[in-house]
Design brief:
This protein has 80 residues and is α+β, with helices and mostly antiparallel strands. 26% of the residues lie in helices and 30% in strands. InterPro entries: PAS (IPR000014), PAS-like_dom_sf (IPR035965).
């Protein structure tokens, strides 16, 4: 996804901003972000996935690793 904002994988701009706020506030405390997120496929349909993110090192908050498990089934969502 070179030269494309990751905004395109979220249902709308508000969801994109909300996740950023949730995730970065956790990451900036040096913690692992772990949460369910609604994402959007290329065809425009939405699904729920599990997203994790963490800074690579404590002094490199801007360098992150993001891991996504998608999609989550209804049963998997009920467990979280």
């Amino acid at each position: 996804m070179n030269d494309v904002s990751t905004e395109i994988i979220y249902p709308n701009y508000a969801e994109f901003l909300a996740l950023g706020q949730r995730a970065y506030s956790t990451i900036n405390r040096g913690e692992l972000f772990n949460g369910e997120v609604e994402l959007k496929r290329k065809d425009g349909t939405c699904f729920w996935g599990l997203m994790r993110a963490q800074a690579l090192t404590s002094n490199q908050i801007g360098r992150l690793i993001w891991i996504m498990k998608m999609p989550l089934s209804a049963a998997q969502r009920a467990k979280h």
